Amino acid sequence: MRKKVIAGNWKMNMLPNEAIDFIDQFAPLVKNTENEVILCVPYTDLFYALLHVQGTNIKIGAQNMHWEESGAYTGEVSGKMLKSIGVEYVIIGHSERRQYFAETDETVNKKIKSALSNGLKPIVCVGETLEQREQGITKNIITDQVEKALEEISAESLKDIIIAYEPIWAIGTGKTATKEDANETIKQIREKIAEKYGQNVADGVIIQYGGSVKSSNAKELFEMSDIDGGLVGGASLKPDEFSKIVNYK
Ligand code: PGA
Known about the structure:
8-stranded parallel β-barrel; binds 2-phosphoglycolic acid
């Protein structure tokens, strides 16, 4: 049985004092969950959040990283740097980064390799636009993104990788994919992984759904056969709401 992994993506929100207040309120609400709980916070919150989650079941992730370990890359933060302060997860290839910051399948692949070699667990985002969905090419787009993201990545590494299927048209829009559509696309991702790495690996890989997940729809989504939890943006900013998503059962 795959575990459910529920990750909050705070995006560019929350000052350190707000992060600390959030964790103070949120930690007691999720302390009994069997699900894995991750908060992916802005760089400026990482250190405070890491100190503050000590002794809780909450893990901390970053939202991006550079693929080089160090060097003349003004403004960038490396996987080695994230690891050095105790970060465990890192979101790679979020559609907002692909859309606004020139992230490509190639940079996604480089970042995944660097994350893994630095002992970080990447949460790799893939997703189609509304236009692509309407053209009926979702499967091609998604399996192509998965193929390129995982180029030259070993089967062994798949246990440390989370894939997040996030249809772009569902992010921050209040529109959620139907549970059937989300499950279907996630199954296609799993089939792609089976083709590349074998059924055993595919059966073990965690694949989340993301895009307007909230407490009112988390249960129906997360109970689907292939959806192993969620990557949650807007609804992860309120401790009460996010705890209901984590405790969806
Ligand atoms: P949303 O964002 O839950 O606000 O739609 C999800 C995401 O971008 O990861």
